[in-house]
Amino acid sequence: MADFGADEPSCTSESPEPEERASEDRSLLHQRLAIRELIDTEVSYLHMLRLCASDIRGRLQQLPPGDLDVLFSNIDDIIQVSGRFLQGLQETACHGEEEQARLIGNLFLEFQEEFEQVYKIYCANYDQALLLVKAYQKDPELQKSIQGIIEAAVPQAGPSGLSFLLVIPLQRITKFPLLLQKILENTPMDASAHPVLQRATSALQDVNSSINEYKMRKEVALKYTKVEQLSLRERLARINTHTLSKKTTRLSQLLKQEAGLVPRTEDKEFDDLEERFQWVSLCVTELKSNVAAYMDNLEAFLCFRPHEWIVDIPGGPAEQYCSLAKDLHLEALLQFKQRLKGLVWEPLCSLARALAGPRNLIKKRLDKLLDFERVEEKLLDVGSVTYEEQAARHTYQALNSLLVAELPRFNQLVTQWLGQILRTFVVLQKELAEEALRRAESSVALLPHHHIPEPDFQKLLEHTLDQNSGQLRSFQENFEKVLPPPTTQPLLPGSEYQLQALLTRYAPGKLYQVTSNISGTATLDLTLPRGQIVAVLQNKDTKGNNSRWLVDTGGHRGYVPAGKLQPYHHTLPRERELRGQTGVHEDYWLPPPEPTQPSVPTVPTTAQVVAVYPFVARSTHELSLQAGQPVTILEAQDKKGNPEWSLVEVNGHRGYVPSNFLARTPSPTPWGWSLSS
Amino acid sequence: MSWIPFKIGQPKKQIIPKTVERDFEREYGKLQQLEEQTKRLQKDMKKSTDADLAMSKSAVKISLDLLSNPLCEQDQDFLDMVTALDTAMKRMDAFNQEKVNQIQKTVIEPLKKFGSVFPSLNMAVKRREQALQDYRRLQAKVEKYEEKEKTGPVLAKLHQAREELRPVREDFEAKNKQLLDEMPRFYGSRLDYFQPSFESLIRAQVVYYSEMHKIFGDLTQQLDQPGHSDEQRERENEAKLSELRALSIVADD
């Protein structure tokens, strides 16, 4: 019967030839057999799955539970889907044969989506499961016990036990297109089932290629997302001719692109995604470092605790401030810091870490793109490429499709999370303020002026502060009135008279006392005993020597070394004041002159004043005066507020002079002065 | 031969009574402590306000950098949120500056002024000490002459020594009295002096925190953030992280 065929050109279309009918019958038989095979194998498949899931998995208790998950993955889901599928298959058996074929086709189309979802996970995980199995094989004890369990349940598993079982789902999903193909081949073209079956077959083929692609993406992601921490030595070890040539090839490709020699593969969709990724990445990085700076500053602020220096100012606002500041530092702000750390800082760190994976993949994609372009070029030139080059193409495509698929979601998630973090930051600030105000409530109520509104309080405060600083000034002045002790040089006997004589002619500021015996050597030098009072006429000699001063002893004039002189403070008048206070006192010397009132000239700054006595400036701040010289007073006190010195101007020169050397015209002040005011 | 009384081992003669010396040291001691505290308080206050300003500036930088990110051009919601945040931060910075200025004027300046009295005080105490030394020396001299045989020259020298002593002793006593009067007054003045500053300090803080509460409260409302607890927020963060990790392109760390 084999050679009958369509040799005769004429054929009657009414009744098919017996040979054709026979072959038709054969096809129909094969179809029925194929359908039978489909259903039977599905039954045994499901049975095996159930065996694995319950008996075997249940008995492999010596393995850690994490391992079991890796080994069996989502087998339960597969069982569930397959169970329903089988039920559907068995229901089709009720119908006629042609109907059945069509229904089966439809059933596959119905389950296409679910198969893809369930099997892709299992398949992608399969490699890892195999790794585990290999690891077990290395341990003979473990291997033996596993083998024992498997053989008890599934004798036909044979020596390769676990891996034999685990590969079954993979085998099943790849079998489907083949089974369908067989049914399709044996279905007449004009049957209603035919187009359905055709669609079903290609659908299952699509499922398989989707599963493959998914698996490849996962592999690629796993390979390239890890940022490897390599030491320098390891990096160097990695460099070999192969990697070097890869890199140089990529570089030259990049250069060719930059130079415009080779068109760059423009992928607008990817470029947009990458751009957005870069912005998102920048946002996270900047925010993280800004928050770090903010937290550092907060830390620094918490370091300083001025309230700890407020000791012994009992009662009142000082104490309240102390306790409030302590509260804020130790509780409110500390809490704020901790919440900030947990709810803002740490999420930002996680975000920053998550960026590493995509960043790496994008970089790798670019590398692979350059490879891919070169391969494309070669393909155009030569027409064929090596196996490695094909692999490079596939890797690029895998990377590209992976990124295009997942970057949008990534970008979106990161943006959402950023928004969440920022909102949290705002809420933390608000709650800090709430907390601080709550703690301050009790203190504020106790403040003396809490009922006064702020602007009025400010005015009151300013006024009080002014008053206070005035009071401080008076304290300061009082302390400054404690003057250096009087010179302890005793007066020589009989020198009081001489002193008074000098005082008639010279200002008190000119009086100096000899500190140790001076024996003059040069012609104009004087010989003076210790304790002698002299008046200084010039603080240098004719040759400009500053250490040799011209003095008047009341009788003689001559030069003495300046180092042996010290200013003499006349204490008589103050003594007299004291004497007045302490009562009767021996009065040894001269009859007391009129107790003079301290003459503090309150001369208006523009009054014309005259210098009564000559004055020799002893430093650059002072100004020399001649008797009778008119001067202009600029300030009637020195920088410290001491009224004994006045700032005057003479002939364009400015300097300080003793205030009591000045007199207001026309009446000169009576001479007489006192040290203390 | 006049019998020289056994003088070896005698402690330095106390020319001023122990109680006086003790009083003086106590009062001065308190003031020395106060000087130290005033200095430290002023320094720490300044450092604290500087740190406060730094914190505020870094908060402003957060929103400023966000605003300059190109994401704002693409995403209207993001832009709205970041703009509102930026406005809030800038306003808070202005209030913070005001607060710091207030502190500078009403706390740090007065502290400085208070501290500036101490040099004069210390100088005055030094001078009193000098006077005391002089007093001691001359007193010793007088006593030396008093011990000697009363001859003519000795009497003359004794007389002179007494004359020298008198003004010096009186000077010391005057200084001592002056300081013993002034020091406690000055010490006591700190209470009235400082209380206004601290009141101002508390008020300034309250004003600042009130503004802060209002501004961030409004912002919270605007950004429509529900009142979550900290645990809820942590869970939200965990959830987001898991979602990210579910993507293959994200490496597991």
TrEMBL record, chain A:
The keyword Cytoplasm does not apply. Pfam families: RhoGEF (PF00621), SH3_2 (PF07653), SH3_9 (PF14604). Residues 507-570, 604-667 form the SH3 domain. Keywords: Guanine-nucleotide releasing factor, SH3 domain. Residues 1-26 are annotated as: Disordered. SMART domains: BAR, RhoGEF, SH3. InterPro entries: AH/BAR_dom_sf (IPR027267), ARHGEF37_SH3_2 (IPR035636), ARHGEF37_SH3_C1 (IPR035823), BAR_dom (IPR004148), DBL_dom_sf (IPR035899), DH_dom (IPR000219), Dynamin-Rho_GEF (IPR051492), SH3-like_dom_sf (IPR036028). Gene3D superfamilies: Arfaptin homology (AH) domain/BAR domain, Dbl homology (DH) domain, SH3 Domains. It comes from the Eukaryota. Residues 30-214 form the DH domain. Residues 255-456 form the BAR domain. PANTHER family: NUCLEAR FUSION PROTEIN FUS2 (PTHR22834), RHO GUANINE NUCLEOTIDE EXCHANGE FACTOR 37 (PTHR22834:SF9). This is Rho guanine nucleotide exchange factor 37 isoform X2. The lineage of its organism: Eukaryota, Metazoa, Chordata, Craniata, Vertebrata. The gene is Arhgef37.
From TrEMBL, chain B:
The gene is Bin3. Gene3D superfamilies: Arfaptin homology (AH) domain/BAR domain (1.20.1270.60). The keyword Endoplasmic reticulum does not apply. PROSITE patterns: BAR. Residues 24-51, 121-148 form a coiled coil. Residues 9-232 form the BAR domain. GO terms for molecular function: lipid binding. It comes from Mesocricetus auratus. It is found in: Cytoplasm, Cytoskeleton. InterPro entries: AH/BAR_dom_sf, BAR_dom, BIN3/RVS161-like, Bin3_BAR. CDD domains: BAR_Bin3. It comes from the Eukaryota. This is Bridging integrator 3. Residues 220-240 are annotated as: Disordered. GO terms for cellular component: actin cytoskeleton; cytoplasm. The lineage of its organism: Eukaryota, Metazoa, Chordata, Craniata, Vertebrata. Residues 227-240 have a biased composition (Basic and acidic residues). Its main location: cytoplasm. GO terms for biological process: actin cortical patch localization; cell division; endocytosis; intracellular protein localization; myoblast migration involved in skeletal muscle regeneration; plasma membrane tubulation; regulation of lamellipodium assembly; skeletal muscle fiber development. Involved in cytokinesis and septation where it has a role in the localization of F-actin.
